[in-house]
């Protein structure tokens, strides 16, 4: 699997390195032997490039990443002679990416079929939940570089199409199951739309993270609790609980070898 993280690591590994080629000529003519040294900047031999990567990545992954960089014109070869030795060398584009610490946005899109930093947040659209949604969006996700999507759309048909498109686009799916209607038992159920959105996420092979308000009837989340990650919260402890969501997303990105998003404050300061 080619990943943005590995490709960036390769470019930064090569930046500032010098490869030296020593060639000897006229070895069959005593007294006339000559030695020639050639250098290539921002370059590494095959062995020196692969060796530090093999302790962390499988060989096919490294090979695929190098091929991706070559096709993207971030890597080239420096060769000495028609059949002489050669080394991997950064192109100007490769140097620019290594220095910037990230790929241009158009090139980044080639790594992903989904947005790695998009989080679809399923929630009820009511006044009682606005503080919860606002905290999750404005204090947890967006300041740390994540993009928040939700089910807001005009019209039923537009809603159905838009909701599926957004869920499919987002790498992450977080559902805020809050109280909606009271049962005779005194417990509550949440919106039926949220359960449908969870089903859509499952169809797209997402791993829903459920934030379940205290008081929601266990019968309505029992099966979900066994299948998906389930985090209970109350109106009083939600800041602490919601902050734990960030760490879960970051761990997932690390496991998938996807670079962490740039915090919003860093983006604004660039």
Put the structure in a nutshell.
With 270 residues, this protein is α/β, with parallel strands linked by helices. It has two domains: 4-27 and 34-110, Arc Repressor Mutant, subunit A; 113-269, Rossmann fold (3-Layer(aba) Sandwich). The protein has helices spanning 4-14, 46-54, 59-71, 92-100, 105-108, 130-141, 156-169, 192-203, 222-227, 238-255, 264-269; strands at residues 18-25, 34-41, 43-44, 75-79, 86-90, 115-122, 147-149, 170-177, 181-182, 188-189, 209-213, 229-233.
Protein model, in words:
The chain folds into 2 domains: 4-27 and 34-110, Arc Repressor Mutant, subunit A (Orthogonal Bundle), CATH 1.10.10; 113-269, 3-Layer(aba) Sandwich (Rossmann fold), CATH 3.40.50. Helix content is 42%, strand content 23%. The protein has 11 helices and 12 strands. It has helices spanning 4-14, 46-54, 59-71, 92-100, 105-108, 130-141, 156-169, 192-203, 222-227, 238-255, 264-269, and strands at residues 18-25, 34-41, 43-44, 75-79, 86-90, 115-122, 147-149, 170-177, 181-182, 188-189, 209-213, 229-233. A 5-stranded parallel β-sheet has the order 7-6-8-11-12. Strands 3-5-4 form a 3-stranded antiparallel β-sheet. A two-stranded antiparallel ribbon has the order 1-2. Helix 6 links the parallel strand 6 (115-122) and strand 7 (147-149). Helix 6 (130-141) packs across helix 10 (238-255). The protein starts with a helix and ends with a helix.
